[in-house]
Amino acid sequence: MQKEIEKIFVDLIKNSLNLPDNWGVDENGNQIPCVTIKSQNIKLFNTPNLQITVSTVSNRVFANRKEYFEKEVTKTVTVNGTSQQITENILAERQCLNDQRVMQIDIYSRTNDARQRFWEVQAALNSTYCEQLQDKYQFRISRISTANNLSGLDGGSDINRYTIRFNCLSWQEKVTTPDFYGSFDTEVWDEEPQKFAEFTIE
To answer: If DSSP codes are grouped into helix, strand and coil, which group holds residue 193?
Structure first.
């Protein structure tokens, strides 16, 4: 994926519920988040408006593999004082991981907005825009989600809170160029018994 899965859902919710980037700043100059990723040391509950957080609860890995392939790279070299570009093929490594994630979206408000609008988040998971994001970033989500009313969880702070959970299939990819047999230090037996000689393979 070219983008964090949490950021994709932040974009989806803001677009589907027609929400702004933030609710401005409070009296202490702290930004008042509207839709954000959870656990970023961002102050919540500093507005009566709707606030939504997105997080990954857990993941179950189905495939964790690597493969090697030839990759064409361009290098700049200096020959007789002149810079030239040369192209060569190198052996690269691709690391791939497929997993199933349990995603969680929390909807908060001091007003009735959370109670009245949490269903819109669930509906957004089956919207045309959501299908477009899944095609663009190559992931899939479950159309069936579960919502729980956790309004009493925050005690006397009188906050309406609804938590939505659903499954999501995602993949990650990382390409590196490891130093297979480039140059590294090693040791071999010297002629004298019980003695090692150090050298470098080029």
So the answer is: coil
Domain 5-63+96-175 has CATH 3.90.930: no
State the pTM of this model: 0.76
Alpha-carbon distance of 139 to 160, in angstroms, equals 31
Question: Would you kindly state where each structural domain of the chain is located, as residue ranges?
Answer: 5-63+96-175
How do residues 176-191 score in pLDDT, each as one tens digit? 888 765 555 555 555 5
Q: Catalogue the long-range contacts made by 116-125 (C-beta closer than 8 Å, 24 or more residues apart).
A: 117/17, 117/50, 118/147, 118/162, 118/164, 119/147, 120/16, 120/17, 121/13, 121/16, 121/17, 121/52, 121/164, 122/147, 122/164, 123/16, 124/12, 124/13, 124/16, 124/17, 125/12, 125/166
